[in-house]
Structures are given as structure tokens and as C-alpha cells.
Amino acid sequence: MTTTAAAPGAELLAARGVTKIYDRGAVEALRGVDLVLYRGEIVAIIGPSGSGKSTLLQLLGGLDRPTSGEILYEGVPLAHGLDPDRFRATRVGFVFQTFHLLPTLTASQNVQIPMFEVERAASRRRSKADALLQSVGLAHRASHLPSQLSVGERQRVAIARALANDPVVILADEPTGSLDSRAAADIMGLLGTINRDRGTTIMLITHAADVAAAAHRVVHMRDGRVVPETP
Amino acid sequence: MTQFALVLSAIRGRPLRSLLTVLGVGVALGTFLCFQSLAWGLEKNWMGLYRDRGTDLIVTQDSFFAGAIAQSVGDDIRRLPGVRSVTPLMWGLSTVDGQPGIPLTGWDPDASTLAHLTVRGRRPAPNATEAILGAYVARRLGKDIGGSVEIGGTRVAVVGVFTGENVLELESVYIPLGLFQQLRGAPGVVGGFYVDVVRGNDTAATEASIAQVTRAIDARFPRLVTYRTDDFARNNDIVGLTRATAWGTSVIAFCVAVLGVLNTMSMAVLERTREIGLLRAVGWRRRRVLGLLLSESVLLTTAGGGLGIALAAVGLRVLAQVPRMRVLAITGSPPELYVETLLIGLVLGLLGGLLPAHRAAQISPADALRHE
Fold it and tell me: Closest Cα of chain A to B265: distance in Å?
């Protein structure tokens, strides 16, 4: 495991003894996982398929609940703190390998989707979306449909969408998985910029060692567990 | 972008399915509007028939069809206090010149009951083998003054053609009461009586007079039934049957439409599972997801309602060209039926969309995003 060079900030998100079992006990996706995300860091989660990386991301992002153990946000268990929908709307941004853009909406409209729960005025949603697209270098593509964008551009739109409500953490599941090396480098560069300029904590899941190398810290997982650091 | 724009984009994103759903709902609601309009048209024409005649009461047995009352009863009714005039009638559906189902009325040609008709030619002489035809039936039979028609095996001279406001009346043939009785082999028997009461100084007084005469007739002739004109028109068998048929057909069309919408929205939720998962993942509350899907459903069905109104308008115009249906179709549709049609479209959207929308709102974002 790569040792971080920078000192971590305050504890932001944590998994304490988290277990997740599916299919009535047939699948134990996570087995007593402990993990902490600190403010301002980029953490890469790396491991083979089926190691529980995506499941951990979903639990940290409030998309699902652990079977046992707890997820804490700023030290408060998610189960007792913010409403999960509100938590996801205001604290978390998601980036997926397959982008999950709505095909009938333009880039700008896709970026506005998370804002509906937070911003009432349509005009403000639109102007903020356009500003976000500008920040990811896609101002000129705001009115294009996803089918009219390259894969790299689609992921940029997805990143802009993840930033829609100024989240404190971005959870990215294989953000470069569908991209060629050049586009992947662009995306990682963009995430690095977001981390530096906004102080946004980023956790990303990846199979690629070069992507993991861009992180402050790398966590290995296997068989539903975090593999301890080897000295 | 507003949430309404989001709803529109989802509908536009699946154009064929959206179009077919709107079409299906349009046909269902158009059917509803058509049948309800036909029933309304019949009821309106029927009520107008009696209203134009200025009759206060109709005295009969169970119905005019079954009527077999001694004509002399009319004289007894005339002698009751408060009664101004009594007109005996017979009425039925007859075959005229080989055309079945033509309304045939036997009445006193000099009675004031039919004073509202404008007769070109002249009215028949009492007991003569003569008839006057309504303008529509005259056109349909190709007859005019000077011609003749066959009724019950008897050639009857056409001495007049009348016009008026009521479509039902213009499809009718009038002959003297005596001729009707002769054709039916029922001398001295009538189907019922039109009774007019002495007018009071104001509406309330006239109403009181009508009520008093009704009580007097009921007491004197307990085997007869006395109706207010509007009640008779509203509750007669033909109107009742038409209304029941209209509602029965409409209910079937509505149920089919609900199932169609339910199927469309269920498929939409299935196909958009990942999309819905994404919405939930970025923090959309369940009720917003529910609202989105329900809005789509209601928008489709309301559009279907609009299409249904257009289809019904065309359908009624087509039916108005069919001689047998003209009586019902030419009256059109009352404004409240249009509103009812759109409201039913709205309800249809809510009913058909509620279950799929609820299911969509319950989708786990984690499961949905894994959905293939």
C-alpha cells in the first residue's frame, strides 16, 4: 500500500466494522471493514473483482445500508444523522464508470438533475450548470445530448453533475474504466484539480495502478476485507 | 430546466410508445364522449319534444308502448278541477314505406299540442287517411305533399310536411288518432294523455296547480301513472337504455385504457430502472420520483383526452350523416362533457400510473444502478 505523503485532515467519512450480506446470506460482500476518509485527500481503492469495492462505495455514499457495523459522517452515524436522501443530495457526488447520463437530456440538463432537491429556481440551476460545464471545459457542449459527446466528454459531464451541489466528497466508481489512456489522464487531472481547488475529498475505485498512483493513499481490498498495510 | 421539461423529455424520448399510449387513451375517451353525447342528444331531443308541446303532465300506464287506456278516461280527466285541456294520443314505432322503426303518433290534428310545428301544406282532417311527415323522414322516404306512404298495409296520403327545432320530431310521422286506432285494431283505446293545467298567477301557483291535478288524477285513476313532462322524458325506457349502453361501453373503454396506461408505465419503469436509480442516487426523494412518473402518466392521458375530444367530434359528424343516427348525433356535445372527458383522462393517468410510480419510488438506488 502506498503511504500518503500529506497529513490527513479531519475525519470525514468512516466505515466501522461494516458487513454487507446479500441474497439471504449467500453473498458476504463486506466482512468487518474499517476505513476512514479524511478531508481533502484522494483515496484509491484497489482490488480484484468481487473484493467489495463497489459495495463499500455504495455504503459510504448512503446508497445502501450495512448489514452490521456503521457508516459515520463527521463522526455521526448516518443512520442517526442526516436523512440519506438529503445526505446524498448535499454532501456526496457520484461518478460512475458508465456515466449514467440521462440520454434524452442535454449536458446542461444532466448537470442540473441533482439540483432539483436543493435549488428551486430553474434559472439558477441552469446558470450554475453552465458554470460547472465551463469549469470542466465543456461550456461549448452544454446543449449537446450524451450521444453527441465523446466518452471523455461524457465523463466530464458526469463529474460536473457530481459537483452540482458542492459536495464535500466525490465517490467515483471506476471513473476511467471506459476511457482510453489519454481521456483517463484528462479525467484524473480534472479530479486532481477539483481536489486542490475546492478541497473536495475524493474516493475512487480503480483497477489501474497508474490511476491509483495519483491518489494520496491507496487501500487494497480482497474478499470483502481491507488488506492491512505491509511494512 | 423545469421538472415539467424533464417530464416532456421522457415522453419525447420514447416517441412511438408515447404516441400509441395517447392514441389508445384517445380512442377510449373518444368512445366515452361519443356514446355519452349520443345519450345526451337523445335525452335532450326527447325532453325538447315534450317541452315544445307545452305539456304539463303525461298520463299513461307503464309506458306509451304498452298503453291501452279507454279514450273515455280522457273526458273524466278533463272534468277534474284545475285541468285546462286533455289530448289523447297513441304512439309507437312503425314500418312506413318499408322503413322500420319510424316514430308514428296518432293525435287530434286540431290539438294545441302540436301548434309549435310549422306545417307546409295542411294538417290532416280528423279521422281522414292522411298524414304529415317530419322534414327529415320526408327526405329519407323521398316523399312530399301529394304523395302517399304505406303504413300497416294502408296507403295514407301525405298532406303536409312540417319543420321545427326538434330532431326527434322531424323523424316522425303524424296521423289522426282514429286512423292510428284503426291501423292497430284498437278503437276507443289510447296510449296516454297529455294534460295541461290551469295557469296560476306565477310559477309557484302553476306548480301548485300541477301538483294538485297530479294528486287528483292519482286518486281518481290509481292504475294510471302521472308524470311531469321532464321526468317522463328523462326516465323513459329508450333514454334509459341508451344511457345504460353509453355508460356500459364507457366503463369498458375506461378499464381497457387504464390497463393500457398501466402497461405503458410499468414498461417505462422497467426500462428506466437505472435512470431512476441515478435520480435516487443524486438525492431525489421518493416523492419527487413518484411525482415525475405520475406527471408523465397524467400528461399522456390528458393529451389522450384532447385527442379523444377531436375524435369524438369527427365521429359525431360522421354519424350525423347516417339517417338513423342523425337524431342522436346532430345535437353535438354539451360543454360539461368535454370537461368531464378531460377530467376522466386525468383520473385515468393517476390510476394507471400510480402503481408503477410507487414501484419506481421504492427502487433501491444501489440495486437500480447494478441493473442490466
Answer: 17
Which of A90, A88, A89, A93 minimizes the C-alpha distance to A136? A93
Q: Where are the beta strands (DSSP E) in B48-121?
A: 57-60, 69-70, 83-96, 99-107, 118-121
**Above pLDDT 70, what percent of chain A?**
95
| CB B31, CB B249: distance < 8 Å | yes
User: Could you say which of A108, A113, A126 has the minimum Cβ distance to residue B282?
Assistant: A113
Q: Which residue has the cell 487501500?
A: A219
Which residue is closest to A84 within chain B, CA to CA? B283
Helices within chain B (DSSP H only): 3-13, 15-52, 72-78, 135-141, 167-170, 177-184, 203-220, 229-235, 237-271, 273-281, 286-320, 323-329, 335-362, 365-370
Spans of chain B below 70 pLDDT: 62-67, 113, 323-331, 371-372
What is the interface pTM, i.e. ipTM, of the complex?
0.90
Domains of chain A, earliest start first: 11-226 (3.40.50.300)
Residues 286-325 of B with CB under 8 A from A: 286, 288
Q: What's residue B165's pLDDT?
A: 78
Residue ranges of the domains in chain B?
A: 3-47+239-370, 62-223
In the stretch 184-223 of chain A, residues with CB closer than 8 A to chain B read none
- Chain B contact set for A147 (CB, 8 A): none
- What pLDDT is stored for residue B152 in this prediction? 86
Inter-chain residue contact B1 with A64, CB threshold 8 Å: no
CA B301 to chain centre: 25
